Amino acid sequence: MHEHRAAHCACMSLNIMMDPEPMFPDMYHPIFTDRKRNFRGTAKQYSRTEKPPKYYLIDFGLSSKYAADNPSPRDLPALGGDRTVPEFQGDKFDEESDPFPTDVYHLGNAVRESCPLA
After folding, report:
1. Distance (Å, rounded) from C-alpha 17 to C-alpha 99?
2. How much is the pTM?
3. Alpha-carbon dihedral of residues 80, 84, 86, 87, nearest 10 degrees?
4. 16 and 112 in contact (C-beta within 8 Å)?
5. How many Cβ atoms from other residues are within 10 Å of residue 23's Cβ?
6. Which part of the chain is the Protein kinase domain (predicted)?
7. 114 phi/psi in degrees, rounded to 5
8. First CA to last CA across the chain, in angstroms?
9. Which residues contact 81 (CB under 8 A, 6 or more apart)?
10. Predicted confidence (pLDDT) per residue in 83-117, tens digit
11. How far apart are CA 6 and CA 19, in angstroms?
């Protein structure tokens, strides 16, 4: 996405979707996830490392596209779901910053919050 000069500006867990088909070739029932969708047996399952799923970013409502000739664009913060970004703290809402590192922070923080170490 960043190679195409687009910044998402709201990379949070609600905007990340996974296609489970590689891990569940026969798909699973939406309520009883250990069963096949048609209830005829146990759903075949692989781990994420055996059959890696694809992840997709959705909801590009706050996203922006930047010119290819601008290697480090500056923009005012787009206040998405994650407001813990260091650039957004204090009274920095009127200061422009590079949106690409902010996307990386958002994504890393979404993973950290969704998959805490036990």
Report:
1. 22
2. 0.78
3. 20
4. no
5. 19
6. 1-118
7. -85, -25
8. 32
9. 10, 12, 14, 15
10. 888 877 777 667 888 999 999 999 999 988 888 66
11. 23
Give the model's pLDDT for residue 79.
Answer: 74
Three-state SS sequence of the chain: CHHHCEECCCCCHHHEEEECCCCCCCCECCCCCCEECCCCCECCCCCCCCCCCEEEECCCCCCEECCCCCCCCCECCCCCCCCCCHHHCCCHHHCCECHHHHHHHHHHHHHHHHCCCC
Q: Residue type for 42, please?
A: T
Tokens of 104: 């990386």
Pull the structure tokens for residue 68.
């290819």
